């Protein structure tokens, strides 16, 4: 990287971090809205209709004003960082990170499809399935952060075991939470 470009790189890096945080917050929150929106089906009328109408509005606003713009700015800032420092593409860890980012982008667009489905009253996933789906974003986030911080493609055996271990803990926690809610009559 040319030293004169270092300040620009640092600005893009700061923008990238801020908007990745915003993007992740949007993804986590949209899934919570999906869960509550789906669970509103179990409410009696008129509560059900009122809640579902409100959730459609909240989901659209969150998606159009926070999650998608944050995703776009995150990706653009990342592209500018790679443009200013193309040597990063020589590092194995960067390709691992980019692989996880592609997975997160696919996740984002699947969520966008769920926004459209719920708007049209198509409930393909249960609230439990949506809870599990929400945790996939957590797994992507953890994987990306560890790869970037450690600057290593991580020994794949340990990395894979670690990510699978985190996934198992999250799934068990979701299942325990489901049982807890069931016992409380929710």
What features would you highlight for this structure?
single chain; 186 residues; mainly alpha; 2 domains; 5 helices; 0% strand
Describe it.
With 186 residues, this protein is mostly helical. The chain folds into two domains: 3-152, no CATH class; 154-185. The chain contains five helices and no strands. The model has no long low-confidence stretch (mean pLDDT 90). It is found in: Cell membrane. It is a multi-pass membrane protein. One of its GO terms (molecular function) is protoporphyrinogen oxidase activity.
SSE topology:
Blueprint: H1 6-39, H2 47-84, H3 92-119, H4 127-150, H5 156-184
Task: Return the domain count.
Answer: 2
Shape: globular
Number of strands: 0
Succession of helices and strands: HHHHH
Number of helices, where a helix is a run of at least 4 consecutive DSSP H or I residues: 5
Task: Give me the secondary-structure category.
Answer: mainly alpha
Largest sheet: none
Brief summary of the model shown:
The chain has 186 residues and is mainly alpha-helical. The chain has five helices and no strands.
């Amino acid at each position: 990287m040319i030293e004169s470009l270092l300040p620009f790189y640092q600005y893009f890096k700061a923008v990238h971090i801020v908007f990745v945080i915003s993007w992740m917050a949007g993804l986590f929150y949209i899934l919570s809205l999906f869960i509550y929106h789906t669970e509103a089906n179990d409410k009696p009328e008129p509560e059900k209709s009122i809640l579902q109408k409100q959730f459609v509005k909240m989901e659209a606003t969150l998606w159009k004003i926070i999650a998608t713009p944050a995703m776009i700015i995150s990706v653009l800032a990342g592209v500018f960082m790679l443009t200013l420092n193309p040597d990063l593409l020589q590092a194995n860890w960067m390709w691992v990170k980019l692989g996880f980012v592609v997975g997160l982008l696919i996740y984002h667009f699947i969520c966008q499809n769920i926004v459209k489905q719920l708007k049209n009253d198509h409930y393909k996933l249960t609230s439990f399935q949506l809870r599990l789906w929400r945790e996939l974003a957590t797994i992507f986030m953890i994987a990306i952060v560890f790869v970037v911080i450690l600057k290593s493609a991580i020994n794949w055996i340990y990395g894979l075991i670690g990510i699978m271990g985190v996934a198992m803990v999250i799934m068990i926690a979701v299942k325990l939470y489901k049982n807890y809610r069931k016992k409380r009559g929710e």
